[in-house]
Amino acid sequence: MAHSELQEQHRALHRRVPMSEAADPTSVELAAKLFRGLADPTRLGVLLALRGGERRVVDLVTELGTSQANVSGHLACLKDCGLVADRAQGRANFYRLAWPELAALLRAAEDLLTGVGHDVELCGNYGDSWLSGTVQEARA
Fold first, then answer.
1. Which of 59, 107, 122, 128 could bond 55 through an S-S bridge, CB–CB 3.0 to 4.6 Å?
2. 65 in helix, strand or coil?
């Protein structure tokens, strides 16, 4: 079965997953898995960059200041999860957000951080161990 056919089957199974159903551990676990995927700084950076439109891997490498292998690996992960789509043009692949709802989620997160960002930064429950050295150095 082709990768695109598998993605379409997955989309059909997960068209609407209400997170308001707290009694349903499956939907809560699925939502938690989505947010864990978004919590990686490089993946989040890729998604934020793609919110501005299509990008090639080389464009993302420049914008994010990381390696081609790192960007490509994260793009593969995001594509496998159905969050990013691509199209070939000549020898280049252009990547974009696969869902407009993802752009809306990122905007909503920015709006939320406007109000609670300082508290989140000070919160000891999340820790900084997952942050990259660059981000940790910038905060020092």
1. 59
2. coil
Q: Which amino acid is at 27?
A: S
What pTM was computed for the model?
0.75
Helix/strand/coil percentages in the chain, nearest 5: 60, 10, 30
**What CATH number does the domain located at 3-9+27-139 have?**
1.10.10.10
CA distances 16 to 19, 30, 68, 107, 140, Å, are: 9, 12, 34, 21, 42
Domain spans of the chain?
Answer: 3-9+27-139
* Residue labelled with tokens 């905007």: 107
pLDDT tens for 42-89 read: 999 999 999 999 999 999 999 999 999 999 999 999 999 999 999 999
Phi then psi for 43, rounded to 5 degrees? -60, -40
Q: What is the DSSP letter of 51?
A: T
DSSP category for residue 15? S
Closest listed residue to residue 50, CA positions, set 93, 90, 21: 93
